[in-house]
Design a protein that fits this description.
- The two termini are 28 Å apart.
- The protein is mainly α and 285 residues long.
- The longest helix is centred in the middle third of the chain and has 35 residues.
- It has a domain of 194 residues.
- It has a two-stranded antiparallel sheet with strand order 1-2.
Amino acid sequence: MSVFVLYFLSTLALAGLLAPVSYFILDGMISYPFYRYINRSLMISAIVMLFVFRHGFRLEARWKALGFNWEFDTMRQIWSGIIIGGSSILFVVAMEWMLGVRHGGGWDPWSIATAFFQGILTVILVSPLEEFIFRWMIQSRLTQPLQEWKGIMIGAVIFAVVHLFKVPQNFKPENVEWYSGYEGICLMFGPLFDFEDYGIKLISLWFVGVSLGILVLRTGTLWASIAMHGIWIFVIQLASKLTVIPPGAESIWRSRDIISGGVAMFTLAILTVVIWVFYPRYTRT
């Protein structure tokens, strides 16, 4: 795990510098708030550092074992991930709609097209990268010295905690300096100390991590988990952009964040049990 710690710290270090540099270059062309530059820089840095640490992660030697190899049942694994993930997250969105936490917000063709393509782009960039990092780089290493279920659960804890890291949208420095990226990155760790507001989200994300980990364990590849992770991201992004939340709609069951409410938590808990009990294990040769 020491290689992963170095990878994680190096990613943060590079992103902290890349964010203000990209802001200085693109500010006149793109009207993004600075916190978005930090988020994009983190994603780019994570990809760059995979190549920097490729020998430490033994990527060349284990490419076929990464779970990306195409086999006779790959399409079935992809469709199973899409169907399981799509039905579960659509159920959460539908329940929040019925509970009155969100309703339609001016569905003009341009906003629909923009949300659709932004969602697709995010899926292509985020889902394979995160599954590779959390399921192969972390979970597979944890399951070697530990029992399989312990490796999955501990890996899911890491997955959930990392997903709480988010640069606050109200981080808007008056003057962006070379160190402003590091200021925003430091603010990302705030939710770790605010369990009252982020506790349900942490538990929900843990169930997400366990579900995805079981899929990888049962299929022996990353394709099903990438598909399920991707459809979750796509639906959440689409619903977040095309729906509005009336004031005072939040409660323990209904949240402004789709994944943070009690409906999502219990849905994901049931989904995890269903996948563990019913999803078949495939034998790879």
